[in-house]
Automatic annotation (TrEMBL):
Listed name of the protein: 60S ribosomal protein L20
GO MF, any single term: structural constituent of ribosome
Region described as Disordered: 1-23
Source species: Coniella lustricola
Entry keyword Ribosomal protein: yes
Amino acid sequence: MTKRTSYDFRSSPRGTTSERTRRLQEYQVIGRHLPTETNPTPSLYRMRIFAPNTVVAKSRYWYFMRGLKKVKKATGEIVSLNVIAEKHPLKVKNFGIWIRYDSRSGTHNMYKEYREMSRTEAVEALYQDMAARHRARFRSIHILRVVELEKSDDVKRPYIKQLLTKDLTFPLPHRVPKISNKKVFSAHRPSTFA
């Protein structure tokens, strides 16, 4: 048996380095009940699930199928599982997310808005936000719907609306001096705060 001195990421069970840098990915999982004599062609059920890897995506799929359609992993099968890629990953977009989460006092419905570059980043921001504000964990949050808000009229929340104003500018309290004004020697250190 040879001793392994260096760690090879390609043979890692977790996948490539780019997969590990992102916390969540969006998966499309399609499954169904196993064919029986009474039902030889069962219906297919498709879900879009946000999960860190395929194992968690399948697990969440069966969790929801058990509650929604009374189909268990033992009596069902997954037909297809693939990653959904973002169409325009370099464009900033507004997202509306409908969720249901369990808190210490009960179950609540909620709608939140995020300004991110992809659906997965918006959902990651949602999980961080819910953990910070409501102490809600990953297991207790059910994402019902994620929608890209294309029109500015669809944006409801003021914390996102304030970013949509035309010719938006931000204050620059820390100003770096231009090279043309820069001296080689100075009697005192220049102040960069306006």
